[in-house]
Design a protein that fits this description.
single chain, 3 helices, mainly alpha
Length: 80
Amino acid sequence: MAGGLIRGAIGRLRARTGPDHPNTLATRNNLAHWRGRSGDAAGAAAAYEELLADRLRVQGPDHPDHTPHPGGMARTGSRS
């Protein structure tokens, strides 16, 4: 359910602000997170990989959003 809501939000954000807007990127991050939490580790990893490529392109490699942290990609498959 949450995934469908977030996917809808991503579509609306892309239409309103564009695919490279920080809010669109953050929402895509949330969707990837919840995919992992719901048990779709492969889908979450693919979504994170695509998102990282876009963030690097838009924000550059030194942006703080690219710093790994406990709750990020490393825990994608975790259900804790």
